[in-house]
Structure formats: C-alpha cells, structure tokens
TrEMBL record:
Residues 405-600 form the Dihydroxy-acid/6-phosphogluconate dehydratase C-terminal domain. It comes from Methylovorus glucosotrophus (strain SIP3-4). It holds the Pfam family ILVD_EDD_N. One of its GO terms (cellular component) is cytosol. InterPro entries: 6-phosphgluc_deHydtase, Dihydro-acid_dehy_C, DiOHA_6PGluconate_deHydtase_CS, ILV_EDD_C, ILV_EDD_N, IlvD/EDD_N. Binds 1 [4Fe-4S] cluster. The keyword Endoplasmic reticulum does not apply. The keyword Metal-binding applies. Its EC number is 4.2.1.12. The gene is edd. It comes from the Bacteria. Its cofactor is [4Fe-4S] cluster. Catalyzes the dehydration of 6-phospho-D-gluconate to 2-dehydro-3-deoxy-6-phospho-D-gluconate. The lineage of its organism: Bacteria, Pseudomonadati, Pseudomonadota, Betaproteobacteria, Nitrosomonadales. This is Phosphogluconate dehydratase.
C-alpha cells in the first residue's frame, strides 16, 4: 500500500503543481501583512470592535491579544447543530483565561437532508455547500482575526465551512464538533419499517413512531452517513482536537473538548507553532482523508465534496484517485448501513482513533503531516478521557474489543475499500460496494427510464416493477435540478431486491450517504442535461453494471448507439425544477456549476 499511497499522492502533486503553488503564494503574501487591528484604519477598527466589552477592546487593540473569529452553523432546527447555542459563551470564557478575545464572525445556513428528502427543498441541498462557503468568507472578510474556530457537523455544512476556511488559508483553524445523539431504535429495524411502509403493510402512524424513535434528541443521526463521515475525515486530516468527533453533546467531556479547541487554535497562531490551514491541508492530508473514507465505508457524497475541498486548497483530485486508493485500502469498520452498529457503538469499539492508528501503523496513511496538535497525526491514534486533572489521551487496546465493528489491518472485513469507479459507454460514475451482497455485484437487466424519482415511485405503487430491471433515473445532475439525493428510492428497490429480483439504479443524481445494499451507479458524469450518454438510454436497453471490474455499459450496437439522439428535458420540467421553495434564487448556480467529478463547484 505504501507504494500506491505514494504513487497517488505524487500524481496529485504533479497534477496540482501550478494551482497549488499559486495558492500558497497568495497565502504567503497575506501572512506578511500587519495584524488586522494594526493594519485597518481607525474607523474600521472602531466598527469592528464597537460591541466588545471595554477590557476586550483594550486586549485586542492595545495588548495585541490573539483574536479568534467563530463561524457557527447554529440553529435549533437541526438536532446536530442545536448544541452550538451555548458554545460562544464557553469559547469566550476559555479564551479570556488565556488572554485572548473572541467574536462570532458570522453564522452560516445549515439545512437538513433528512427534512427535505424527496421534497423540492432537497434541490437546494448540494448548492447549500457553496452558499455556506461564501457565508464563511463573508464572516471572515472583516479581516481582523488571528485564528478561526468553525462550528458545524452535518452533510454540506462541514465541506462548506472547510472550503470557506481554505479561502482564508492564512488563518489557523480548528473545527469544533458537537457529537452524535444517543442511540435510539436500531437502524436495521428502522429500515424494515420503511420497507413495510413502501409495501403498504404499515401506515403513516407506525412509520412516524419508528422515525421518531430513531431521531429523538440533540446530536447527529447515528448512522454512518455524510455527517458522521465528515467527522471521520476531519479527524484523519488533523483538524479536530484528537478524538472529538463522536462524544455525545451532553457528555461531560464535550465541554472540555470545546475548551481544548480554544487552547489548540491559540497554540498555532503566529507567535506560537504557526500552522495556518492552507499550509496544513496539503496533498498528503487530502489523500489521508480519502483513505479514511474508504477504510470506513463512508459516504459517497464525499467523492464530490472532497474534490471541491481539495480544489479550494489548489489541489486537483478526481475519481480515479479514489478508485486507485480503494483497491489497496482495507475495510476496517462496519457501521450502518455497512453493518448493524451505530456511531456510538463504533466510538465505544475504538472509533476513529482505532481506525487511524491501524492505518498509520500499517503504512496506509501519511504520518509525516502537520495537524492542529504538536504530535501530528499520531496524536489522533489515542482516545480522550476526562481525568481529575482534565483531558488526557490514552492508548487503545492492540486488538479490537468488538471485531463485528472494527478490525485491525491484519484481519480486515475486506482487502479493499468500499468504493469503485465505473467507466463505460454511459460515462463515469461511482458505486459504494461495501454493503452490496456478493451476488449483486454484477447486474445485467433491461433498463426502465425515468425522468425523476417520482416516476419510479409511482410505477412501484402501480405494481409495474415486479421484475429484473435497471432503473435509469436521469435529469438529476447539478445542472438539471441541483443534484438532489434520491434516498426515497432505497426502500422500494430494497423490497424488490428482497423478493429476488435483480435490480439496480443508474443515475446522474446522488443517493444518500446512507445508500446501502441496492447496487447504485451514481453521480454519472456527464449528466443528461450536459449531453451525457445517459440521455441516450431507452427503456428496454440491456444495461450491464459490473462493480467487480468497474464497468457500466448499455449493451447497444455501436452504430445505433452513435446515431441515437439525446433525450431533451421538457420546458415544463425545467420550469418545475427552477421554481418554488426558493429554487429561483439558485438559477445562477445551476447554470455555472461544474460536473460532479469536478466537485460540482460553482465558484470557478
């Protein structure tokens, strides 16, 4: 693996040389300036600190105390972000103990895919990431800060905060998580109720009771979807206080970890061990994040998000890098939907610290990288505990305490990670294979073409899908409608698969970070609206999806395939995608967005 790790990293470094060099030059120029309170005009400074208590004004202006900007995703609509309500006071209190000052520089929007799933609001979800990045930039644009703390957890929020922070790469930054909610109804039982509801075997009352038992308190959802994958990746990148990811919001250690984040960011400001985020996040750190994603069977959304994150640091990656690393990265964790455990059980079994330790010691990650703590990545191989003297970090057992959840590199769940690049005459897509049954790794069946998930759901309800088929769901890419997750397709397709039918999905849209046992070739690029070949597929065409060798093809005579015309989105469909629930405001993003493999970025 060490050879593959170095080969991929070097290929990324060579590919990124011009953009990375230009990025670092911009950072270095900004670092050379005087600090904000000394550089800005007197009126600017007065405006900036007008609302600060007088003693804090004196500290930051006269004593030149370090000044921390906080960007927060707090709202009490999202269970994961509700705990952040009290964090600014904790952060201010801790900063004052160390002679520093704090201002909440700005808030960023934070929407929940679970609330908007299958609704028009979901079409704003992907674009909310770049909106969050821009909101982060607006907050930090006042340009008086010596460091930043970033408060956010969920799907688009962490990538958006990270993209925004990297555009202020001269600042030392630490991410501050809030942790997962306590365990409720187990995820397997929850999925079974969803499948029964899809079949009409239970009603809305039973379904709501099940869902409310699963999502019942403060914290992130407890399955290993995009939100919790975010936290795993930030640990692997060295951007958290070590081990902070999966401590419950109301556990006593959580406040201690938040206070530690203040001390940590102050320890890497200009007069200390200066570690600005733009220098910290280099090619090796991006590769480490990818390896952590693959080793844990994490969310497929990150093959989009981390391309965008890397680009924000001047680093160019693509899906071939993910696929190459996946072939040599062992799968070390099984957390729902890739297993039955939730993230609390994952944490109790060793969590990110155990996985990172195994990857570092096995040579699967770069350990010669910077992090927000002095010991670098190896400090993230230990687990925090609360002692009489405050936080301490302790070694984990050599062997797993529960091999159904985490394993060592000597006996992984599989020799390769759970992600595969698919190529063929339908374009380039990815598939998450870590929870797909072995007998479903290859699917060959006739296509049924749908222009949206509503059409597929209606066909299921009419009983028209009791057969082998590949659902080709098109016009779901970023240009078409913002690339919503098609999570509502999982229950009906799971029902059909359980009945013995060979089913799969091929789409230019996204599936949830919790996509699981149904084979799903997703993020197909180019998308249909950009002239992608998915627009040539006709109902009845044989489709072969082979996740073992990594191919996806329409089995159509080549001459006929070349002569086929592209399906066209109707004007009514375009109008429906662009209007209502605020979608009009995102028209510019739909026009300017790049492909999924280019990170679906809207800012280049």
């Amino acid at each position: 693996m060490k050879q593959i790790l170095n080969e991929v990293t070097e290929r990324i470094r060579e590919r990124s040389a011009p953009t990375r060099q230009a990025y670092l030059q911009r950072i270095d120029q900004i670092i050379q300036r005087p600090r904000g309170a000394d550089r800005l005009g007197c009126a600017n400074v007065a405006h900036a600190f007008a609302a600060l208590p007088n003693n804090d004004k004196f500290r930051v202006v006269a004593e030149k105390a370090p000044h921390i900007g906080v960007i927060t995703a707090y709202n009490d609509m999202l269970s994961a972000h509700q705990p952040y309500e009290t964090y600014p006071d904790i952060i201010r209190d801790e900063a004052r103990k160390h002679g520093a000052t704090v201002q909440v520089a700005g808030g960023v929007p934070a929407m929940c895919d679970g609330i908007t799933q299958g609704e028009p609001g979901m079409e704003l979800s992907l674009f909310s990431r770049d909106t969050i990045a821009m909101a982060t930039a607006i907050g930090l644009s006042h340009d008086v800060f010596d460091a930043a703390l970033l408060l956010g957890v969920c799907d688009k929020i962490v990538p958006g905060l990270l993209i925004g922070a990297l555009h202020f790469g001269h600042l030392p930054c630490v991410f501050v998580p809030a942790g997962p909610m306590s365990t409720g109804i187990d995820n397997t039982s929850k999925s079974k109720v969803r499948e029964k509801y899809a079949q009409g075997l239970v009603g809305r009352e039973e379904l709501l009771a099940s869902e409310s038992a699963a999502y019942h308190g403060a914290g992130t959802c407890t399955f290993y979807g995009t939100a919790n994958s975010n936290q795993m990746l930030l640990e692997a990148m060295g951007l958290h206080v070590p081990g902070a990811a999966f401590v419950h919001p109301h556990e006593g250690m959580r406040e201690s970890l938040t206070r530690e984040a203040v001390k940590t960011v102050l320890s890497i400001t200009q007069n200390q061990r200066f570690t600005p985020i733009g220098r910290l996040v280099d090619e090796r750190v991006i590769v480490n994040a990818i390896v952590a994603l693959l080793a844990t069977g994490g969310s497929t959304n990150h093959v989009i998000h981390w391309v965008a994150v890397a680009r924000a640091a001047g680093i160019i990656i693509d899906w071939s890098d993910f696929s190459k690393l996946s072939q040599s990265t062992p799968l070390l964790a099984r957390v729902y939907p890739n297993g039955t455990a939730d993230v609390n059980e994952f944490q109790n079994a060793g969590g990110p610290s155990f996985v990172i330790r195994e990857l570092v010691e096995g040579g699967y990650m770069h350990d010669d990288v910077s992090s927000v703590v002095l010991g670098g990545l190896r400090d993230f191989c230990k687990k925090p505990e609360l002692s009489d003297n405050g936080l301490i970090w302790v070694d984990l057992p050599v062997e797993s305490v529960d091999e159904t959840i985490v394993r060592t590199t000597s006996k992984p769940f599989s020799a390769s990670g759970g992600l595969r690049l698919l190529t063929g005459n339908l374009g380039r897509s990815v598939i998450k294979t870590s929870s797909v049954p072995e007998d479903r790794q290859v699917i060959e069946a006739p296509a049924i073409v749908f222009n949206g998930q509503e059409e597929l759901l209606a066909a299921f309800e009419r009983g028209e899908l009791e057969k082998d088929f590949v659902a080709v769901v098109r016009f779901q890419g970023p240009r078409a409608n913002g690339m919503p997750e098609l999570h509502k397709l999982t229950p009906p397709l799971s029902v059909l698969q359980a009945k013995g039918f060979k089913v799969a999905i091929v789409t230019d849209g996204r599936m949830s970070g919790a996509s699981g046992k149904v084979p799903a070739a997703i993020h197909l690029s180019p998308e249909a609206l950009a002239g992608g070949p998915i627009g040539k597929v006709r109902t009845g065409d044989m489709i072969r999806l082979n996740s073992i060798v990594g191919t996806l093809n329409a089995l159509v005579d080549e001459d006929e395939w070349q002569s086929r015309t592209q399906a066209v989105m109707t004007e009514a469909h375009k109008h429906n995608n662009g209007h209502g629930i605020g979608r009009e405001l995102f028209g510019g993003m739909r026009k300017n967005v790049h492909s999924a493999e280019e990170g679906a970025v809207t800012w280049i």
